[in-house]
Amino acid sequence: MVVLNKDAVYPFFCVFPVMKGFHKKSSFVSKHIWLSQKERSPLLRFQALQALIYHSLGLLAFMLVKILAPGYYARQDTATPVKIGVIAMVANMALNLALIFPLKHAGLALATSLSAYLNAFLLMRHLRRDAVYVPSSGWPRLGVQVAGAALLMAGLLAWLSPELDAWNQAARWTRVVWLGGLITLGAGIYGVAVLTFGLRPRDLLDRSVRETD
Asked: Which of 36, 37, 137, 194 fits as disulfide partner to 199, beta carbons 3.0 to 4.6 Å?
């Protein structure tokens, strides 16, 4: 119980702001990926951008699945996560069929993200039902702190980022420096924001769970 709570804190603390930052700066990332592919059309670049955005939405779910599944393996239960994985796979196939027509290739990326959240939800529900995992009392406060800091980071990055036209016209290494600077700046803004909102490094140790377990 303690291990799952502690392990779940870190991806939420780290991956959620990455999702927000990537969503805000995915156009720059997409442009940089295609930087040396000048023969590619703007349509193909836009399609790559769509896929990046929808796939990035599932980062948190991908991490949670990796964290929650060992909660079953530790109890010698390998059947339940396999069954849940099959359900998620079937859901992924159904979502692929449902989303590929309105969203085309981006629908496949969105279907992957949504099925990952279904997988994580089902793993969590079974662990809570069996009282293997009991969320600590500090989760709501942590959620507000992390979400607030991530939104503040995304807003400031959007304000401080160069215009897309300037980005397109800049030289390759100028864009590399800009992108690296924005990533570093985003990490710094997020770190200062979570400290301002009252989150301290010791809070990530989930001490309340350790004391009540």
From this structure: 194
Q: Which two tokens stand for residue 186?
A: 């985003």
Long-range contacts of residues 122-130, Cβ cutoff 8 Å, at least 24 apart: 122/84, 122/87, 122/88, 123/64, 123/65, 123/68, 123/69, 123/71, 123/72, 123/81, 123/84, 124/64, 124/68, 126/72, 126/80, 126/84, 127/4, 127/68, 127/71, 127/72
Contact criterion met (CB below 8 Å) for 134 and 128: yes
In the chain, how long is the greatest CA-to-CA distance?
A: 60
How confident is the model at residue 22, as a pLDDT? 64
CA angle 15, 18, 21 (to 5 degrees): 155
- For residue 91, give Cα distances in angstroms to 2, 94, 95, 134: 31, 5, 6, 27
pLDDT, tens digit (0-9, with 9 covering 90-100), for 120-176: 999 999 999 988 888 877 788 888 998 899 889 888 888 888 776 777 787 878 878
Helix, coil or strand: residue 162 = coil
